[in-house]
Amino acid sequence: MHVILMGPQGSGKGTQANRLAPRLGLMLIATGDLFRAAIRAETELGRQIKAVYDAGGLVSDEITIALVEERLDEIATRRRLGERVNGAIYDGFPRTRAQAAALDAALAKRGEAITTVVQIDVPQETLIRRLAGRRICSSCGRVYNIESNPPKVEGVCDVCGGALIQREDDTEEAVRRRLDLYFTQTEPLTRYYRERGLLQTIDGDRDIDAITDDLVALIERANQTPAAGKTV
Fold first, then answer.
1. 102-142 pLDDT, tens per residue?
2. What are the residues facing 5 on neighbouring strands?
3. Among 188, 190, 212, 215, which one is most buried in terms of CB atoms within 10 A?
4. Which CATH superfamily is domain 2-124+172-224 in?
5. Quick one: pLDDT at residue 230?
6. How many angstroms separate the most distant Cα atoms in the chain?
């Protein structure tokens, strides 16, 4: 079972991936986490990633795929040891058609394939409200959200009493630019999976528990009989 979760910032994709992984017996593969873990472990790939970060560059597809393949090998090893690892759930990967094709090839070598791709759909205005609502304490760095996790006193940190600020990249204008860029960049990827009959869509503008339950049901159905283009 290999499941890809897609969705822009603010869609709840990361939250759902973390909920689904233990419930379905899947290994969570999030490239940001893989990069940080490799750097901490000072592996060869970690040193390459750190060099890219230090230079202000982007990690190449080659390095990213190599890290993902390491996790796929780990899944196989854990299965051989008798652990319940049914596959993987991917958060933030793939980001391009080239990465999607590389993932397909890596899975094919192992006699496996993507089971389903789920796009979490949230109205853009809701995403903007969620993302532009973030506030950060100027003193201790604690993060709040005026929508979902507001401070007890408006504009004041609960922990240290510091002033809460809105970062420049969290303004409504900046958020709109980021979302426009996301949808532009991911359209070829969604088309890739739609053409293969793997893409499904779920309403992400609801209660978190309800979304999780529907995702579990959708993924389990797809693992039995793949379905295309269905909206939950």
1. 999 999 999 999 999 999 999 999 999 999 999 999 999 99
2. 91, 118
3. 215
4. P-loop containing nucleotide triphosphate hydrolases (3.40.50.300)
5. 40
6. 56
Distance CA 49, CA 55 (A): 10
Total-model pTM: 0.85
Q: How far apart are CA 25 and CA 83, in angstroms?
A: 9
Catalytic machinery residues: 13, 95, 134, 167, 178
SS3 assignment, position 91: strand
224: pLDDT confidence band, cut at 50, 70 and 90?
A: confident
Residues 194-218 as b or e (16 or more Cβ within 10 Å = b) = beeebbbbbebeeeeeebbebbeeb
C-alpha radius of gyration, the chain, whole number? 19
pLDDT of residue 231: 39
